[in-house]
Amino acid sequence: SSGINAEYGHSVKDSDMMDLEFKKEVDEVMGYLEKLPTKERNILNNWLKKLKKASDDTQELNNWREVRNEYITLMCNQLRRSDIIEPFLTRPSVGPLRPVPKKLAYTKMKFTLCADEES
Question: Are residues 109 and 8 in contact, defined by beta-carbon separation less than 8 angstroms?
């Protein structure tokens, strides 16, 4: 099992494990980025910067790791399908990382962590 509770949003993983998954997915995303047109690459790079500094921005969001990992998993899955859709069509908004929009939550549920598929 992936260690994520069946009920959405309740992770039983510790922060180190979540950080490790984030790094693995960032590595995979980086592999796709070089193949993208400049505009898309720039937008996704902006998202990556924001996700990497999520901890600085989101002290008030105690589940910031979960939120950050949801975004990177969403990005990773879109890149694998070669189908970049929101929220990655535009640069991230200024300010703290917001939870993944509800309208994207249903698509997120079907995804596995990118890194899991290799094993």
Answer: yes
CB 68 within 8 A of CB 97: yes
Nearest Cα neighbor of 9 from 66, 73, 87 is: 66
Q: Identify which of 39, 36, 47 has the alpha carbon closest to the alpha carbon of residue 74.
A: 47
Query: How far, in Å, CA of 119 to CA of 106, rounded?
Result: 25
Please tell me the distance from the alpha carbon of residue 44 to that of residue 38, in angstroms, as a whole number.
Answer: 10
- Which is nearest to 83 in space by CA: 40, 25, 28, 21? 40
> Nearest to residue 63, comparing CAs of 4, 109, 117, 2?
4
Predicted confidence (pLDDT) per residue in 51-93, tens digit: 998 776 555 556 788 889 999 999 999 999 999 999 999 999 9
Residue 11's DSSP bridge partners are 4
Report pTM: 0.74
